[in-house]
Every structure is written in structure tokens, then in C-alpha cells.
Amino acid sequence: MPEPMIELDLTAPWEPGESAGPPPNRRRARRVAGAGIVAVVAAGVLTAAGPARADTPVFALDYQVTGVHLAGGRVFAGRYKPAGAGQELEALDARTGRLLWSLPMEQHEYLRSVTAGVVVLVQERGAPEDGVTDLAVHDAATGARLWQRTAVRVLGRFGGRVLIEEVTGGTRDARTVVVTELADDGGGIRNQPPEQREQHLLALDERTGAPAWRIDVPKGNLLSFEFGGSWEVLRSMAELTPAGELRQRDPRDGTVTKTDRLDWSGAASWFDVSGGEVVVYPVGAVGGDVYDRVSGRRLWHWQDLGHFGGLGTCAPGLYCVQDQDGTTAVDQRTGQTRWRVQQYNSILGLTEHAMIMTVWEPPDLAPGPIAAVDTRTGRPTTVLEGWFAIQPSGAGVLVWKPVGQREAVLARLDPATGRVQVFGRPQDWFGRPECVAEGDTLACVAVGGLTVWRLP
């Protein structure tokens, strides 16, 4: 039986509905852009955002915008100054668009992250791929500089602190990585050796820059980080030694909270921890080995010649591997293939029994379908065609669709009401926008123009 497919006709004039219904209760999850969509695409009801909400932006900046962040009811926009005079950062009130403050930005300086209290700016030192920057932290309310630090690598933030790595001497040692070394049987690219250096980690108070704790990681040990809904928000960290000792660390104070020992030793390219399993990618090997965290024993070996990256947790008990033609889900404990779905190779979100997926395509191509895929069977249960997905952190699965040549429609797939709610009609959108969201505010940059919207 073919899955239900829904195509919404937006060529007719849009009129507000009588009621948008109550807002849904949303659940945030690791690496998930939003919650359920299955009921939404199944019902396929197109509604207005409510009679009190217009489908025009709260405010807009017409040109020269390079990027946007949201935090604490403020919009932070990077902009080019007139007549080629460099860039500046502007802070605006998210409700009114009123300019609160601005400050000049240096060459190769960019906004790394924002919170309700601080703005984190970094300026590249040397080659961008080195990741070495100078760090400057400003007050989010006034723009005043609070503190700065040179030659660091910013790893993330948590609980009012910024985790950095000090780079000794201000640069990293030069290294050459061979990425085309094939296994003897031609069965894939071998895992490359990591950069060998001591790592000096500092957790700094975001307001003062004062160190809260410090860890010195010996050369040869590897670190792995788990992030929350935002890739900036650090949830946990682990350390693996060449002897196979796995140390779980609390990012609040850096202390070791749990120690396990894997039945492995040697050099690893990288590793990843997911619940009760640990994946180690040994240097010189193809693929990775999955270990039981408690007993330390090796469970199974994985390699896939067509994969985009390593094994990634996508649902409870499942690793997912994406390739050009689709996604394969494998059992974390046994390595057996649970299911394979063709075409869909990008995961947007997770509900109780479904993964919300789409098709990764280059920016100049038409939108791929958005599907709710049953995590137990891999079968697409509902499909929505003709919409681009937006993945701002914490605001659910938002979508947009071109209407004509110069107009678009912004909508929200609402799992609580089973409706596709239209809340905006942007004008002069070309290409794909860059969007972020916080609370009931969405900010999008398209072709240098910024529009700020109120979410339903």
C-alpha cells in the first residue's frame, strides 16, 4: 500500500482561520531539530497563524546582513558597513527591531555563539582549518567587552561557562594527513592518525573569564564530546587512553565520574560513546569496532564503503548510516541491519516511533520530500512534497515553500494540532535562507536581507 502523499495548493489567496488552537508541548532531544510531524502531514490542514498575527515580518533589514543569532529576546546580526568599511555586529530588540547597540568586527572575526548574558566573538589565527582563534566575550545587553583570551580553540559552552583548549605557542604543529590510503583489498579508506599533542582544557566563567577548572590531557589520549539540541551546548565528555581506559567526565567540574576498560589497546583515529556502547575507529583500519561499555568486550565490526561518516545514534538502540541513496539502520548491540530506506538520507527530528527525514540535495535543486519514517520498520508512513525543511534549534520542524518567482510561504508542522500553520509570506526570497529560532521568534537571512517573524 503506497504511503499517503500530501500536496498543499498555495496558489489561492490565504485567509486567516478562526483559531490556531493551543501551542503544542514540545520535547527537546539530542541532535533533534524538532518533535513529531506524523500527525501533521497525515492531516495536512493548512491554517493561519491566528487572527491576531499578520503574515508579514515583525521587522526587516533589507541588505548587507551576513548572519544572524537569537538569544534573550535580542537579534544579533552581522552586517557589512557602507562603502566597504568592514563589518559590524548589531543587537536589535526582537519585538520591535530597535537598535540596542553595535560594535565593529575585525577582519576574519565572526560571531561564534550567544546567550542571554554574553556574546562570544572569535577571530581566526592562521589557517581556518586549524580552528585556532582569539576569543572576545561581550555583554549581550550593552555590547561592552567583558574579557578576552588569545590562541584558543572554543569547544562549547555549558552552565554559564565556556570550554576552551589553550594552544601552546599560539599555533598548532604542522601535520600532513593522507586521506586516499586504501586498504590492501581496495575495501575503503583507512582511518587516519589523529593530531598528536597535549591538550590543555579550561572551563571559563562566561562573565569574567575566570578559570573554574582545568584538565591537562596527555598526548595520545582522545576526547569525545556529546552536545545537546545546539551544537554549542556541551552535555558530556569522555576520554579514551591508548590502554583502552574510558573515563567519563562531568563538564561542570571536569572530574571523572565513571571509568570503564575496553578490551582494546592501541591508537585510535576517533571514538564515540552512545549509552552502553562505544565505537572505536583504530588507526590504519577500515571502519570501527563496537564495544560493550560495561564488560569491555568487542561486540562487532562495522565498515561501509559508501557511508558519509561514522556510525551515528539516530533512535534508541539504533545506529544510522547515510549514503547517497538512503539510510541504513543497524542494531547497536549486534550490528545486524534492522531496515533500509531508499532516498531519505538526512534526519531532521525524532518522535516516539518515527524519524523525520528528508533528502539531502545541493542548494540549487528543488526541495526533496519530507517523510515520517517508522523507526521499527523503516517504512515511510507519510510524505510531504514540495517544501524545504528549516532546522533552527528548539523551534520544531519549520518549512518553507516558494510561491511564484518572488514570494515564499513560511509554515510550521504542528504535532499537537495536526496542521500545517502558515505564519509568514516572505517577499524577494531567492535561494535557501539561513534561519535560527528562540521561543516564539524566527529570524531568517536570505540574499543579504533579514526578516524576523513571530512563530505560532
From TrEMBL:
It comes from the Bacteria. InterPro entries: PQQ_b-propeller_rpt, PQQ_rpt_dom, Quinoprotein_ADH-like_sf, WD40/YVTN_repeat-like_dom_sf. It holds the Pfam family PQQ_2. Residues 87-339 form the Pyrrolo-quinoline quinone repeat domain. Signal peptide: none annotated. Residues 8-28 are annotated as: Disordered. This is Pyrrolo-quinoline quinone repeat domain-containing protein. The lineage of its organism: Bacteria, Bacillati, Actinomycetota, Actinomycetes, Micromonosporales.
